[in-house]
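Example 3.2
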Amino acid sequence: MDKRKIYQALIEPVLGLNRKLKNMKKPNSKFKVEVIKTHSEKPYAVVEVDSNSVIARCRNREDAMYIMNLQKKTPTFGNQPIPSFFKEPL
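Structure, written as tokens:
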């Protein structure tokens, strides 16, 4: 047998399992930063992915990224969702 064929026969099951595991991954972020052009004063919005609601509007991307990272690392309301009166529809 050729070394290449042996290698392919050994590595193929591992690659197939790796592909399945990658497809099973869930997105780990509950928040994203979007640019909303209709709001010229504060165009950057931090959006909660689950409810598709805006939780904060910012003037620059750095501030929006800071809020997003803060909510991911230390959520304001712990395990509870953000209350609806803090959100606005996208």
